[in-house]
Amino acid sequence: MIWLDTILQGVLLGGLYALFAAGLSLVFGIMRLVNLAHGDLIVFGAYMILIVVSVLGLHPFLAALVAAPVMFVFGWVLQKAVLNRTLGDDILPPLLVTFGLSIVLQNGLLEGFSADSQRISMGALETASVSVGPISAGVLPLMTFASAILVIVALNQLFYRTAIGRAFRATSDDPVTASLMGIRPDRVFATATAIAMLVVTIAALYLGTRANFDPNVGPARLIYAFEAVIIGGLGSLWGTLAGGIIIGVAQTLGAAINPEWQILAGHVAFLLVLLIRPRGLFPRGH
Amino acid sequence: MALLETDGLTARYGDFQALFGVDITLNEGETVAIIGANGAGKTTLMRSITGVLRNEARQIRHKDVEIGHLPADTIMKRGIAMVPEGRKLFPSLTVEENLIIGGQHKGGRDLGDRIDSVLSRFTGGPDPMALAAGHDGMGHWTLETIYALFPILRERRMTPGTALSGGQQQMVAIGRALMSNPDVLLCDEISLGLAPVVIRDIYAALPKIRESGASVIVVEQDISQALAVADRVYCMMEGRITLEGRPDAISRDDIHAAYFGDAA
Amino acid sequence: MAMTYSVTTRTGASSIAMIASLILVVVLVAAPAFASRGLIQDLFFILTMLTLAQFWNLLAGYGGLVSVGQQAFVGIGAYALYGAVILGGADPVLSILLAGLAALVLAVPTAYFAFRLQGAYFAIGTWVIAEVARLSVAQWQAVGGGTGTSLPRSALREIGAVNWIETAFDVRASAARDILTYWLALILAVATIAGIYWLLRSKAGLALAAVRDNTEAARSVGVDAGRMKWVVFLTSAFGTGLAGGLIYLQKARISPDAAFSVTDWTAYVIFIVVIGGIGTIEGPILGVLVFFALQSLLADYGSWYLMVLGLIGIAVMLFAPRGLWGLISERTGIQLFPVRRRLVGGALTQEET
């Protein structure tokens, strides 16, 4: 029974990793940009929520609602002013610029908040759990998982049911022809990154409430997100959720055997999938 | 007043100059054909007019407004629509979505346009809303009238655009451009790679397009097709206009000379 | 019309540069005779960072393989050296070669995995493998596990050359060890630059340039892009492993977090290459000097310093993507290590002007 419990915890953890990954996946799908600062942006969001909680005394969920529009605008400006300039055939500029951004964000947060670890307090919700028979699960992990599913459903609706989604897909196919349709690609890219920042805010809420964080945890979150995306097969959000679950389960199983093996087990699971299915579990034929 | 005109239009790709002072005009209600061999500069001319290539402002005028410097999306919102060479349907979109996207940004009232419009007061840059103001994109063409024009597309509306035959894809590309009810329609090589019977079907739509109020520029390598549909013809060679005239007023020898140079 | 022309890569500036660099190398070899121990340590740092930067530049600038996992090879090289010395009682200096070999061995599975990923995903893939290496080494209790270990003094004392330097320069053992590692770093840096210069001027270099510019086109003229990627990746890993072993031989103390640090061994290295000029041999040389100057000025400011580095890196990438050396050679046309072949003499150059 303990194993079943461990696997359930892993699945729920996978929801968190899918949340980390969804924004990364969205941006990559539309503009083939991999943002190496994605993990640091999540940490940045967590600090922003923390500030709102402590300054305005709001509940973390309301604080995330306050932080979300700020993150949205931040993403829009970041894309429009910086990242759009790096897009093109050469993969070096976006990689190196976002890598630089990662270093700037990490050290900016270190300067502003020190290396002390922080946590956004959820009060009683932190320890609340529900039990079904012998198995119990934390309310917060369950909410994380439900949020991941909601985010994926919402992004899929946005992509396939709205005018913005059509513009996203058209621009992703062919930016020049899209511009002949009255679409300005750099605005589409800015909008996509802005929306990705909304997802980042949700990810930040759960990153900050479920465990301690400090300015240096970003790169590790980027790696988990990336592993989830690759395992899932590029471009499929449900695949990303499956990828997140695989990493999550591997980590909790690894930790159950030896606490020092938690992270290593996740990476090994990723490498195994890459070995067996180089294009991921649910590749998109293009 | 000419609807659209270029005035000493030059264009270059890096060190390579592709257009050398091209002057063409399109009058209201006209159909103009541009012919010329591969590499004569026809597609470059289209790319310049649509704003895919940027030029000096004064080199292109539309309804007496200088538009040479404007980005492609603003030019489209002014009412200049393009059927690009190679059709260029969006593979991720269904046939119907391909059509809808052609009209969803008409009129220039996107949030982005509104923001840029406000910003332009401070930066002195072009004001996209003001520039698009004369064209609301309303008119004859809707999803229904496009389906009436090309009935086969209604049957295939849920299939991905790129799963169609070449001729059907061309119909989608034309329909997509018409969805913004343009006053200028640019058609780049719409008969390229299609069977003669299909070409005939496509060109059969042209009169209805003209009736709807659009003036048309067709770029063609098929000279007889061009001469058959056009009110006036321009011939290009090596980035220059080498011949201009009414189809009935120019001879085969004139065209041959304009196509291949005086050596012939 | 006589058509006598020849293909050359030599330029006026490059001949002068050759002579100047020979003089510089002679001065650097003699440096321990007159330089302070602090200066020798600084030069050691500059030379090892230069070596790492040249190999990353070979990978990313010439091979188009943007890796952010080079710390894997520094770390595994360093740990191989420590393992050989501590567990096998091997000679520390000879173990540097072992460090390179260990990195080479790790590079084979790394490439096998990472080459399945494209572009940016390749970058993060290499990072994952570096993390796996770090976490695995942290489980290796014989070399200190997660907390790390030191090189035993006895092993360091037994290095023959150190005793010789002690008497020749009349310095203490620790300073003599610095001098020895400094000379080794000088040899490694010079060999790296000469080796990469040779590689780029050889037929393989042409193939490499073709692959970087257009993989499809390169394939169509018979260049095996896959093989070139392997060659570049393994070469870089070997060199990076050598540098890693040498760096930690000098430090004499190691821990997994330090030896596999993405900041120290990849972020700094990327910064050096980007700011100096990616895709040139001159770039990393200029870049390491700028980097060292910035570090001397700003290192006391901790995270501010790193923020400034990041911002400078972003600004250079956006506004001068060919780096400082790119700006200089654009203005002056100078190339110190020309790899581009030029036609000289004959009618062809006449026509071009």
Largest sheet strand order of chain C: 1-4
**Rg for CA atoms of chain A:** 19 Å
- Nearest-integer average pLDDT of chain C: 85
Instruction: Please report the distance between the alpha carbons of the first and last residues of chain A.
Output: 43 Å
- What is the global morphology of chain A? globular
Sheet-strand content of chain A, in percent, reads under 5%
Beta-strand percentage range of chain C: under 5%
Q: In order across it, which strands form the biggest sheet of chain A?
A: 1-2
Q: Would you list the SSEs of chain C in sequence order as H and E?
A: EHHHHHEHHHHHHEHHHHHEH
What's the gist of this structure?
The complex is a heterotrimer of chains A (286), B (264) and C (353). Chain A is mostly helical.
Could you characterize the architecture of this molecule?
With 286 residues, chain A is mainly α. Chain A has one domain (8-109, 138-276). Chain A has helices spanning 2-31, 38-56, 60-81, 92-113, 139-161, 163-173, 175-180, 185-210, 218-232, 237-257, 262-276; strands spanning 129-132, 135-138. In chain A, strands 1-2 form a two-stranded antiparallel sheet. Chain A is globular, with a radius of gyration of 19 Å. The model of chain A has no long low-confidence stretch (mean pLDDT 92). With 264 residues, chain B is α/β, with parallel strands linked by helices. Chain B has one domain (4-260): 3-Layer(aba) Sandwich (Rossmann fold). Chain B is 37% helix and 22% strand. Chain B has helices at 42-50, 72-77, 95-103, 111-123, 128-132, 143-149, 151-155, 166-178, 196-204, 206-211, 223-229, 252-260, and strands at residues 4-13, 16-26, 31-36, 60-62, 65-66, 80-83, 184-188, 215-220, 232-237, 240-245. In chain B, the strands form 2 sheets. In chain B, strands 6-7-8-3-9-10 form a 6-stranded mixed sheet, with helices on both faces. A 4-stranded antiparallel sheet of chain B has the order 2-1-4-5, with helices on one face. In chain B, helix 3 runs parallel beside helix 8. The longest helix of chain B is centred in the middle third of the chain and has 13 residues, at 111-123. Chain B starts with a strand and ends with a helix. The mean pLDDT of chain B is 90. Chain C has a domain at 31-261. Chain C is built from 17 helices and 4 strands. Chain C has helices at residues 12-30, 37-62, 71-88, 92-114, 119-137, 153-157, 160-169, 173-201, 203-213, 215-220, 225-251, 256-259, 262-276, 282-298, 303-319, 323-332, 346-352, and strands at residues 6-8, 149-150, 253-254, 342-344. In chain C, the strands form 2 sheets. A two-stranded antiparallel ribbon of chain C has the order 1-4. A two-stranded antiparallel sheet of chain C has the order 2-3. Chain C is globular, with a radius of gyration of 21 Å. In chain C, 45% of the residues are buried. Mean pLDDT of chain C is 85; it is low at 346-353.
